[in-house]
Structures are given as C-alpha cells and as structure tokens.
Amino acid sequence: MLEAKNNDELPAIPGKRYFTIGEVSELCGVKPHVLRYWEQEFPQLKPVKRRGNRRYYQRQDVIIIRQIRSLLYEQGFTIGGARNKLGGEEAKSDVSQSQQIVKQMRLELEELLKILRR
C-alpha cells in the first residue's frame, strides 16, 4: 500500500487507537496546518472531532496521510491527481478494510465477553 521510499524513514505507528494532530504531524513528517488543509482536499481523511474541535486521528487516517504525502512529495502528483489516485485505490481496498475492521471488532468483543463472564 505504501510505495514511498521515504516512508521507511518515518517512525513506526504506535499501537494506539487515537492520535492527536501533533502526534500525526511527527509520525508523517507533515506540519499540522498541512494536515488541516488535506482534510478539506481529501474526503478520505475524517478525523474524529471532540471537545473544542480537537482532532483525533485513527491508525487508518495515519496510513492515508502517509500515502498522500508520498503521492504529493515523492511521486510528484498534484492535489487533484493524488485525490483521484486515492479514490481509485480506496474503492478496491474498501471491502478488505471493512473485513479487517469487522474481524478486529469481533476479536475485541470476544475478549470483552470473556472478561464479563469471569
């Protein structure tokens, strides 16, 4: 999915559920104002907004941001070209992502059920 050479130099994504805009900025090598701009340009980016309009990104958002960064900064795409490229890839991977999410949720629910039965 990530075909950028520079993404290998980026830090590993920690196993957290939510990331602040500052954390995502460091994980992706992009300034926070750029992330806010990309939210307007790429419909795939939808961070959860909580109190005071604070943004919380999920792991999938971080992966998409790294893809956008690669397309724009390393492969030379324009914003429109990157949006189109991601849109095509998104349609193909939507089903598998949904399956992964369902599988993960099922595992978490089974673990929760084990805890509740104790």
What can you tell me about this protein's structure?
It is built from four helices and three strands; from the N terminus they run βααββαα. By secondary structure, it is mainly alpha-helical. It has one domain: Multidrug-efflux Transporter Regulator, Chain: A, Domain 2 (Orthogonal Bundle). The protein has a three-stranded antiparallel beta sheet with strand order 1-3-2. Strand 2 and strand 3 form a beta hairpin.
List the helices and strands and how they pair.
Blueprint: E1 18-20, H1 21-28, H2 32-41, E2 48-50, E3 54-58, H3 59-74, H4 79-117
Antiparallel strand pairs: 1-3, 2-3
Using only C-alpha atoms, the radius of gyration works out to: 16 Å
Which regions contain 5 or more consecutive residues with pLDDT less than 50? 1-6
Text of the CATH class: Mainly Alpha
Largest sheet: 3 strands, antiparallel
Percentage beta strand:
5-15%
* Classification by helices and strands: mainly alpha
Describe the oligomeric state of these chains in a short phrase. single chain
Please count the helical segments. Answer: 4
- What is the total tally of β strands? 3
Count of domains = 1
Summarize the structure.
With 118 residues, this protein is mainly alpha-helical. Helix content is 62%, strand content 9%. A hairpin with a 3-residue loop joins strand 2 and strand 3 (54-58).
What characteristics describe this protein?
118 residues, mainly alpha, Multidrug-efflux Transporter Regulator, Chain: A, Domain 2, three-stranded antiparallel β-sheet, 62% helix, 9% strand, disordered N terminus
